[in-house]
Hints:
By secondary structure, the protein is of the alpha/beta class. The chain is about 40% helix and about 15% strand. It has eleven helices and ten strands. The strands form two sheets. An eight-stranded parallel beta barrel has the order 3-4-5-6-7-8-9-10, surrounded by six helices. A two-stranded antiparallel ribbon has the order 1-2. The longest helix has 16 residues, at about 240-255. The mean pLDDT is about 95.
Amino acid sequence: MEYRRLGKAGMKVSEVSLGAWLTYGGSVENDLAAQCLRTAIDNGINFIDVADVYARGEAEHVVGSVIRDYKRSDLVISSKVFWPMSDNINDRGLSRKHIMESIDKSLQRLGTDYLDIYFCHRFDPDTPLEETVRAMSDLVQAGKVLYWGTSVWEADQLNQAVQLAKSFNGYAPQVEQPRYNLLDRHIEPDIMPACADNGLGIVVWSPLAQGILTGKYNDGIPEGSRGADTNWLKGELTDENVAKVRQLTDLAQEHNLTTSQLALAWILRRSEISSVITGATKPQHVLDNIKASEAKLDAATLKRIEEIMA
């Protein structure tokens, strides 16, 4: 496993990380989720990403039950705040009230007294940005959070947050967590440059397009898969995209890689990326994804990928 700095921060995260979105504490049985987490940590992954809304807090419980067996300082644990956690009108968003109450609940569920990273899970148009930035900065000041970040924010929102923090000598966001993969490159024109200009790291979710870039749909939609049972892939699981993935699979095999490893290595080709947040429902998935950290794609291979995806 190789490690990268979180933007300009001193902290380093594993190039390949493990996320609990699939969802640990929900659709993935607890013992199996724990096996995935232990496999990840035992094989060099130090960054575990979770959120309060994943299985309504149960994912945090599952992660907490595992990390208590490890040295806390060896790990980078993140969680998130924004989405409704109950029917209470204030139990949502990025108000100071919700942030301050949510951090304590997340810490309790995780069984830790601090988070390495705390993400604002979306932008909140109903709360003044200064209120959010001050609240997150205060959490850093209080020692409950070491770094705070954003998830799925636009470039201008990131710029404004950084400038606001500077205006009152507070702590600015240090990392953005966007969706990014071979089928979704929307962050390249504006968000990536904004992160680079402000010294923010980028940790990406859905690097395998929720399974499409694993090649699992190359020969049709398997029964019981996300493509068969959910609407999450609607719009991307098209004949055109599957045809592209088939070509990627052939290219990956030429390099003794899986389709997943090729797709992850393609993301890691960019120095702006700090980590790819992968999902896993089996320990073997974790081990397979970790190998992407070792894969280096040469210029000719990258050119072929561009030709396929064009």
